[in-house]
Amino acid sequence: MLTIGMFTLGFDAYIIAGLIPGISATYQKNASQVGQAVSVFTLFYAVSAPLFASLLAGRQTKKILLSSMFIFGLANVLSALAPSFSIFLLSRAIAGMGAGLFSPLAVASSTTFVPIEKKGRALSFTIGGMSMGTVLGVPIGLYLANMFEWQLTMWFVVIFSFTATLCMFKFLPDIPVTPPPAIKERLSMFTDKRVTITVLITFCASIASLGLYTYLSSLIPDLTSDKDLTIYLWAWGLGGLLGSLSIGYFIDYFKKPKVLMVIILMTLTVSIICIPILINLSILKYLPFFIWGAMGWASQAPQQHILLSYQPQQGSAAVALNSSINYLGSAVGATLGGIVIYSGMGTIALIYFAILFMGFSLCLQFYSMKKFNKSPKQKSRAT
Questions:
Q1: 380 assigned to some structural domain
Q2: Considering only Cβ atoms within 10 Å of each terminal Cβ, which end of the chain, N or C, has fewer?
Q3: What is the 8-class DSSP label of residue 225?
Q4: Is 306 a domain residue?
Q5: How many Cα atoms are found within 13 Å in the side-chain-facing hemisphere of 65?
Q6: Cβ neighbours of residue 238 closer than 8 Å, sequence gap 6 or more
Q7: Diameter of the chain by CA atoms?
Q8: What is the distance between the terminal CA atoms of the chain, rounded to a whole angstrom?
């Protein structure tokens, strides 16, 4: 049931990138301006996730999940009916708040239904709901937008939102309520250097990956004569589905999420580098998008697994923080991408900026492994 809700969020969060041309035509705005609709959604997601994790700690989890998904559905009704671009931006802000409340709580709750040795798979399956929303929802949404109007796609999201709400109401069991931690304990999470470095890795990778994804509708026509954006989104989404659903098994089997993160970040960087190199080489042109999607989606579960190991008593807050930082990175990436396009630097510059931020994330990951993976014996020697 939680995965169905995440499916709906994934559908809505990633469809806007494909709808930018239609929304631009409706409200007479350029691509960089419409791209800020993604920034607004992700910014409010980023702010609401940790805020609600604190304010609603100790409340009945099922009611919060139901309320947040219902609010998310109403926000998308407003998106479909928005008479002006300002109202459309407001609706995206409200949708972001609903998503920010639902997503981290759903991910954290998923681990309460399974034994400890299966937590990695529970995390990857729940997060995989978002990638399934991307794989199945985005191409369908683009097809509907091309055949009719982009607003019909938003109504599609509304139907899924209310269906998810009804399914959770009927079938989702009550979730054990975790007593809220003391203020001192909660603040200690934000002053934990291990947590800070971990979420900074998420932040930089998100700026690169999700920021670049936002402007695919502008990037693809500039790199190739192929105008069919849908196939590239299919490749990205299918990769995301594979990455998000399989990474949990690797986490549970190898039990070394930091090593997995190094592999993921390096592969993601190489895939972005290969986009302009392979974009005109027949079937190979879709390969970088597939790998990019797989690695981008696979990166979330190891990071959340690491944070849960650092802060086992504050699982929902730790997951909310990482989820928040992920979407904050997306907001920053979309904003920077809009500036790049508006300044006339060319869409190829988006790839260069993405590679730069992936380099930052890799440096931080190596620093984290060197700094925080020392054995007690090594630490005593260093002291």
A1: no
A2: C
A3: S
A4: yes
A5: 31
A6: 135, 290, 293
A7: 68
A8: 49
How many whole angstroms separate alpha carbon 248 and alpha carbon 86?
A: 40
Burial zone of 344 (CB within 10 Å; 0-12 exposed, 13-18 middle, 19+ buried): exposed
Long-range contacts of 246-249 (CB under 8 A, 24+ apart): 246/124, 246/298, 247/120, 247/124, 247/297, 247/298, 247/301, 247/302, 248/120, 248/121, 248/122, 248/123, 248/124, 248/125, 248/301, 249/120, 249/121, 249/124
Domain that holds residue 338: 2-374
**Residue bearing tokens 């790839």:** 351
Residue 383 lies in a domain: no
| Beta-carbon contacts of residue 382 (< 8 Å; ≥ 6 apart) | 374
Q: Please check the confidence at residue 375 and state whether its pLDDT lies above 50.
A: no
- Residue 6's alpha-carbon distances to 72, 89, 176, in angstroms, are 12, 22, 20
| 347 DSSP 8-state letter | T
- Condensed to tens digits (0 to 9), the pLDDT of residues 252-308 reads 777 788 889 999 999 999 999 999 999 888 888 999 999 998 998 888 888 888 888
pLDDT reported for residue 179: 47
Token pair recorded at residue 334: 């979309």
Q: What is the CATH number of the domain that holds 151?
A: 1.20.1250.20
Residue in 246, 256, 269, 227 with CA at minimum distance from that of residue 358 = 269
CA distance 381 to 299: 33
Exposure on the CB side of residue 57, measured as CA atoms within 13 A: 20
48, 325 in Cβ contact below 8 A? no
pTM (2 d.p.): 0.75
Domain-embedded: residue 289:
yes
Contact assessment for residue 240 and residue 132, using Cβ atoms and an 8 Å cutoff: no
